[in-house]
């Protein structure tokens, strides 16, 4: 079956990589797994015998039909739907359990999918995801590094991310023009522990990283905050007014936000 470039179809065919991805999920024999973009089912074949229940989300109608024909496992459900429109909370699980997510994310919508998962965090336990290496670098980046930015903070506010391994273009068919990286994301939101509100803190972070070359103070002023208020909040948090957001860890950004709320 020919690929559809507009859907970002680059199918994994590296058998060793498949086993490493499944192993990274851990024991899921009593859990419900959601596979994003199963494609031709290479990863699905390894997941079906290991998962308690498996739901495969496939946007391509023909591939979804082919998967239904190929798999007869009672614990597998194929859903022909865009992951961005899928309601993760609609999947039934046992009391006290949450969903496990795995998938080879289409490069062109990786960030929207990550934000979708973040928005669904209350029903998710962990995710093992393959994405473009440069995006993985950003997602897992620490403050002070070149890759640290808005995506880093946003994703990490919902739990820690670790890069597991990198795959070359040759591991896929057709081979993409970039390397891919597999990451593991454990959902453990930090809003309460940092004393910040999700609805207020994330917009503040977007303002803080609005223009990478500008200082944090200048970005906040450009967002409409009074210069004196910004200066005072930074001083109380012990932050140099000339600092850029990319130099500040999440904890420091949280302190600045809380100081701004007091004002």
Features of the shown structure:
9 strands, alpha/beta, Helicase, Ruva Protein, domain 3, 2 domains, about 260 residues, about 20% strand, Rossmann fold
Write up what this structure looks like.
This protein is of the alpha/beta class and 263 residues long. The chain has two domains: 185 residues, Vaccinia Virus protein VP39 (Rossmann fold, 3-Layer(aba) Sandwich); 70 residues, Orthogonal Bundle (Helicase, Ruva Protein, domain 3). Helices cover 37% and strands 18% of the residues. It contains eleven helices and nine strands. The strands form two sheets. It has a seven-stranded mixed β-sheet. A two-stranded antiparallel sheet has the order 1-8. α10 crosses α11. The radius of gyration is 20 Å and the shape is elongated. It starts with 10 loop residues before the first strand and ends with a helix. The N terminus is likely disordered.
- The oligomeric state of the chains shown is single chain
- Class derived from helix and strand content: alpha/beta
The unreliable regions are 1-8
| Average pLDDT | 94
Order of helices and strands: EHEHEHEEHEHHEEEHHHHH
Map the helices and strands.
Layout: E1 11-12, H1 15-25, E2 32-36, H2 42-47, E3 53-57, H3 61-70, E4 76-79, E5 99-104, H4 110-119, E6 124-132, H5 133-140, H6 150-156, E7 161-167, E8 172-173, E9 180-186, H7 191-194, H8 198-208, H9 216-222, H10 227-236, H11 250-262
Parallel strand pairs: 2-3, 2-5, 3-4, 5-6
Antiparallel strand pairs: 1-8, 6-9, 7-9
